[in-house]
Amino acid sequence: MKKLLIVCLMAFGLQPALMAAGDTVHDFSFTSIDGEPLPMASFEGRTVLLVNTASKCGYTPQYEGLQALWETYRDRGLVIVGVPSGDFKDQEYDDADKIKQFCEVNYGVNFPLTEKYHVVGSDAHLLYQWLEARLGKESVPKWNFHKYLISADGEPVTFFPTKTKPRDERVIAAIEAELARK
Fold first, then answer.
1. Which residue from 55, 67, 121, 148 has the highest number of Cβ atoms inside 10 Å of its Cβ?
2. Has residue 115 got a pLDDT over 80?
């Protein structure tokens, strides 16, 4: 029976290991930029904007908008989680301390950042693979600063491509709608 289930999952393009990996975003974990565990379960009950970031990209100034969202909405339950990645033309530093310093000095970033991770392909962090399985291939980041909105109960709500700025009216409306649901 288990073998039949695995074959069925694979027929639909879902990896069995991913299906076992988690039922919600809260079942996944990162390592923070400071080397500490960063379980997504620590954000249970809060809306999350998950963003793959890069320090040496033309879209890097979006950090400013992300920090502004964090400052505006964190007391109402929004968490911004930045996931540094070098997947797109290796536009991220390899050293976690350098990434953190760059973000703090240039953009005043104080929202949670993870260590550097892959966000696309077979080496992508399991959460990114799970999001692809849940939302489809069109949801996969095509570049840096791709944004996923996650509900307070750990379900993916929507995603925004790179060119959609953090303070775009569509992003604000989606965040406001999720915060109102709590």
1. 148
2. yes
Q: What is the DSSP letter of 57?
A: S
Kindly compute the dihedral angle of the four CA atoms of residues 82, 86, 92, 98, in this order, to the nearest 10 degrees: 70
User: Identity (one letter) of the amino acid at 90?
Assistant: D
Write down the mean pLDDT value for the chain: 91
Task: Say which CATH number the domain at 55 has.
Answer: 3.40.30.10
Does the annotation count 57 as an active-site position? yes
Number of domains comprising the chain = 1
Of the residues 14, 57, 68, 140, only one is catalytic, namely 57
Q: Which residues are CB-neighbours of 52 under 8 A, at least 6 positions away?
A: 83, 84, 85, 87, 119, 128, 141, 144, 145, 146
pLDDT in tens, 39-65: 999 999 999 999 999 999 999 999 999
